[in-house]
Amino acid sequence: MTIKDIAAQTGYSVGTVSRVLNNQPNVSEKARKAILEAAEASGFQLNTNAQQLKQVRSQNILVLVKGSSNQLFGSLVEELQTRVAATPYHLVVDYMDEYSNEVLRAVQLSREKKPLGILFLGGNRKSFLADFDRIDVPCVLVTNDGSGMPFGNLSSVFCDDEQAVREVIEQLISWGHQRIAIIGGDRDNSDTTRCRYDGCIAALEANGLEFDPLRDYANVRFSYAGGYKGAEALLAQKQEYTAIFCMADVMAMGAIRALTDHGLRVPEDISVVGFDGLPIGEFIIPRLSTVSQDVQALAQRSLEMLRKGFETHSDPIHEIVPAQLQWKESVKAI
Amino acid sequence: MTIKDIAAQTGYSVGTVSRVLNNQPNVSEKARKAILEAAEASGFQLNTNAQQLKQVRSQNILVLVKGSSNQLFGSLVEELQTRVAATPYHLVVDYMDEYSNEVLRAVQLSREKKPLGILFLGGNRKSFLADFDRIDVPCVLVTNDGSGMPFGNLSSVFCDDEQAVREVIEQLISWGHQRIAIIGGDRDNSDTTRCRYDGCIAALEANGLEFDPLRDYANVRFSYAGGYKGAEALLAQKQEYTAIFCMADVMAMGAIRALTDHGLRVPEDISVVGFDGLPIGEFIIPRLSTVSQDVQALAQRSLEMLRKGFETHSDPIHEIVPAQLQWKESVKAI
DNA sequence: TTGTAGGCGTTATCAC
DNA sequence: GTGATAACGCCTACAA
Prior knowledge:
2 copies of one chain form a homodimer.
Chain A: H1 3-10, H2 14-21, H3 29-42, H4 48-54, E1 60-66, H5 71-85, E2 90-96, H6 102-113, E3 117-121, H7 125-131, E4 139-142, E5 154-158, H8 161-174, E6 180-184, H9 191-206, H10 213-216, E7 217-219, H11 224-235, E8 243-246, H12 249-261, E9 271-276, E10 289-292, H13 295-311, E11 318-320, E12 324-326
Parallel strand pairs in A: 1-2, 1-3, 3-4, 4-5, 5-11, 6-7, 6-8, 8-9, 9-10
Antiparallel strand pairs in A: 10-12
The first copy, chain A, binds a DNA duplex (16 and 16 nucleotides) through residues 2-4, 12-16, 18-19, 22, 26-28, 31, 46-47, 49-56.
């Protein structure tokens, strides 16, 4: 079933059928009605391949999600979906694992999907500096800082990770915590990890607390199991930590389980803080203290910035959306 | 940059370039080398649209995921990815929400991606009966029973939900539980819900326990919040339940939180069982008792069955993979 | 308002 | 082995 069949069926030409199916003007009501009916009846859908092959520009907004099991991005995509539904645009979501090069993928998909713009959910500075100049449509980097990169078509929305983490640590200190450990990722390969790490160090140093990365920092994967292992590694240091900051909620949940298994109560014996503000944090026992990223705001602002980019061709914007510290049951003052 | 440019650059024709880029025979080593080098140098990639438009059959295996936030399917897709990586095939994953018609989507994508076969992760009998005859490639319905449907190209792998749930309930009863409530979804619109519900009823009836659906069954969404609301609704019935069976782990986690908030301890005051065997169940407090679906086996068998379908053109198979009851900290004998 | 025809980037079928 | 060339299904001038 192709556009030709519909044309034959209705007696109109492929041109008219195409115009109707694309909601274009210059078609009589009669033709529109007949063609839509025929299409409906046979369940006809335009072939996206042919469409995109021919089109110079689609109505697509491309969303590149780096890290397919990142639940924060999951919520973000949902949020984006509902917002885009109310616009004339269409969302094309592409998932990739944490280790793929998001920019090269974007170059490839740009050529194929001919998107109006691209939303990067996660991304590394290194990849952008290397290849982003091959992309010419407006883009927004979401949850990472894109300022300071020399690109005229790259905006960004993100929360100030470093600042948020600094506040977390300082709050913990003000509540009497002196021995604070950290569970995070690889600071050499993740900008996010690096920012959050810097925030920790800044706060600890400002308060004259000693911190030995080799002893007090656990470098693990961003997962439940990673958090579990991280906490066990820290316990093995026999440092009597009073608090652990985890760079992701999933890590925090794994850590809480490990601590519990080793006979420690959270928060009575040790406090735990996460990062992201995942929905599940509200449901676990104890409720998780966390830095909550404003998914709503991230979705709204990134879309607005992208639209401004391709609708009015305006200059890139770099914007911080505030993160919110949420102190829940997993933390206790000493 | 197109295949033509590569042809011009290397002095060969588009035909030869195409053959090289598709690893086809009848190309001299010299040509192959020159063309691959040129492609490499410019980072050239074939345009998928043009490719799929022209191809009669791709090397794609299409995976249709119904319910994009279903974490069980998330693990399944990961499992499938790693397994397919070792084959000459390629996975194309398409996510859709719980309320879309998976079969119509499959018809559309079939036409476009020209897949060798399709894996349905989740699906409803109703949609299949209505439109599946429009699909002619081999398919496997995963986690739902596809037997009893009159299609020569539809296999299925699933766990015996009804049986598993029956065992759960009977085990609870044997441990002294008499007042058992259930949190689940909409039995009219979800085959899975219906199966699990039937299993409950069968076990309860067989043991002479009374069960009033209006009072003892909470129909909510498959989410943390759904489980929370479900548990609250049940508590409002003032029935002194000793155990709650939830049709999904996410529901169970929400329920545990609600029970805790209402001053009940799990499992001391009330036992909770989930379904799915999500990784996180191992990390929450208390560790969740659940019916663990064998993701490995589901992935392995569904792929094998699909390959058998399009490689040897054999008849559909319907197979049950055993689910495993995992009794953890969230359950206690009375 | 409608029809016609060329071409998007590839694959596939021929000849050579 | 290699090179033309006709599709694939659609969009888009342009002509009618």
